[in-house]
């Protein structure tokens, strides 16, 4: 028995075929589409604050909401690049995280704008970001009253420059006897800056000081060698190379209470306090007469400057591998790095000048100065002219800025 549809088919009265239904084109396209929906980036939040005295990295990360296992990972990653025992008030922590508290990155900002960053991804990675500072040249002038330090502070110039001037002119000028007050001082210096923040220590470029009718001028090179040329009334007086550039004079020549033994004894040199590893330079051309260890002095380099004068550089942490006994060095050559070897309370350079075997004050003795070659050629005089021109231009700029700010 054959059943037929109750609908007539075309060409057959009373019989129709059941229409064939096809999917709508739009539905068909959606069903067949292979296009994935776009990923929605999670909303990120930023949390940041400075470290307070006595706080630890773990406590701060806990306050920021990180879980204990995540805090441990961050501490290990950052600790691989930075000693966490050196955390100080003023350092800061920045956390980037998702709304559900998952960390994306943790950044520790330390001194001089350096950042240690831990980034979370498939793996935890750490990097050290050191910003590129801008080198700016500044100028200032002051009238000396009670003291050089006070004059610099009052003029809003770095007071530590008084030590550099004392080093340079110590053998030529008696600041207590020769200065009666009212002397004019001009300084030109360079600073590394990140925005408005100074990075590191400033470096002197030029100084001019009028004393007793004479004009003393000092030009420092921009090469970082620390070697400076001293002029009197436009003529070269001598060349001086500081043993440690930018260091603080922490102990002078003469009798003092020994910092370790506690008794009063003769201090046969001068001490320059500086960070461990700071380069130490020869103060005059000479020949290396000794490299090694001496009791109390620790690691030592000694230079011979002719038949009667010798300089000694003590408490060094290291010396260049290529430095050998008998080798000749020039003023400003690096001969070692600041350390705390021997009898020392901390990193410093103990610097001595011996004349015929007897210690003499390194800041006043002129024999060592005579061992340094005088630069009386046109190059030295042209450097003085360039420094004077830069000094004048910088002072004019400072005056213009002050006038603009006051309007």
Give a short summary of the structure.
It comes from Salipiger profundus. This protein has helices spanning 25-32, 57-63, 68-79, 148-154, 161-169, 175-178, 367-371, 378-406, and strands spanning 44-50, 92-98, 103-109, 115-119, 125-129, 134-143, 184-194, 197-211, 214-219, 227-232, 235-241, 248-251, 254-257, 264-267, 270-273, 279-281, 286-294, 298-304, 309-318, 328-329, 334-338, 348-355, 358-360.
What does this structure look like?
The protein has 407 residues and is of the alpha+beta class. The protein has 8 helices and 23 strands. It has 3 domains: 86 residues, Nuclear Transport Factor 2, Chain: A, CATH 3.10.450; 87 residues, Roll (Nuclear Transport Factor 2, Chain: A), CATH 3.10.450; 124 residues, Glucose Permease (Domain IIA) (Distorted Sandwich), CATH 2.70.70.10. A hairpin with a 2-residue loop joins strand 10 and strand 11. The longest helix has 29 residues.
The CATH topology of the largest domain corresponds to: Glucose Permease (Domain IIA)
CATH architecture of the largest domain: Distorted Sandwich
Number of domains: 3
Main sheet specs: 10 strands, antiparallel
Structural class: alpha+beta
Question: What's the shape?
Answer: globular
Number of helices: 8
Helical amount: 10-25%
Indicate the proportion of strand residues. 35-45%
- By oligomeric state, this entry counts as single chain
């Amino acid at each position: 028995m054959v059943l037929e549809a109750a609908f007539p088919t075309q060409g057959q009265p009373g019989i129709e075929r059941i229409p064939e239904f096809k999917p709508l084109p739009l539905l068909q396209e959606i069903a067949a589409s292979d296009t994935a929906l776009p990923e929605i980036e999670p909303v990120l939040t930023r949390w940041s604050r400075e470290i307070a005295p006595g706080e630890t990295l773990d406590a701060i990360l806990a306050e920021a909401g990180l879980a204990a296992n995540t805090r441990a990972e961050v501490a290990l990653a950052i600790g691989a690049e930075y000693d966490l025992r050196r955390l100080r008030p003023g350092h800061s922590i920045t956390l980037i995280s998702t709304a559900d508290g998952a960390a994306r990155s943790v950044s520790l900002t330390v001194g001089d704008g350096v950042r240690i960053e831990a980034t979370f991804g498939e793996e935890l990675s750490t990097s050290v970001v050191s910003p590129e500072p801008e080198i700016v040249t500044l100028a200032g002038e002051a009238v000396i009253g009670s003291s050089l330090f006070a004059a610099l502070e009052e003029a809003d110039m770095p007071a530590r420059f008084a030590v550099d001037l004392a080093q340079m002119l110590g053998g030529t000028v008696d600041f207590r006897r020769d200065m009666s007050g009212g002397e004019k001082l001009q300084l030109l210096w360079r600073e590394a800056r990140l925005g408005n923040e100074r990075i590191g220590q400033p470096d002197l470029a030029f100084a001019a000081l009028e004393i007793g009718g004479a004009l003393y001028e000092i030009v420092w090179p921009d090469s970082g060698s620390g070697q400076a040329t001293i002029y009197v009334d436009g003529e070269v007086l001598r060349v001086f190379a500081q043993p440690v550039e930018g260091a603080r004079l922490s102990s002078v020549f003469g009798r003092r209470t020994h910092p370790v033994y506690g008794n009063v004894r003769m201090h046969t040199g001068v001490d320059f306090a500086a960070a461990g590893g700071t380069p130490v330079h020869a103060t005059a051309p000479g020949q290396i007469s000794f490299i090694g260890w001496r009791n109390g002095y620790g690691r030592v380099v000694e230079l011979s400057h002719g038949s009667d004068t010798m300089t000694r550089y003590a408490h060094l942490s290291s010396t260049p591998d290529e430095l050998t006994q008998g080798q000749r060095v020039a003023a400003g050559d690096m001969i070692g790095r600041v350390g705390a070897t021997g009898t020392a309370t901390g990193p410093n350079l103990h610097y001595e000048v011996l004349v015929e075997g007897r210690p003499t004050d390194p800041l006043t003795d002129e024999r060592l100065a005579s061992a340094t070659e005088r630069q009386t050629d046109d190059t030295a005089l042209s450097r003085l002219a360039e420094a004077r021109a830069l000094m004048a231009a910088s002072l004019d700029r400072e005056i213009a800025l002050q006038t603009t700010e006051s309007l």
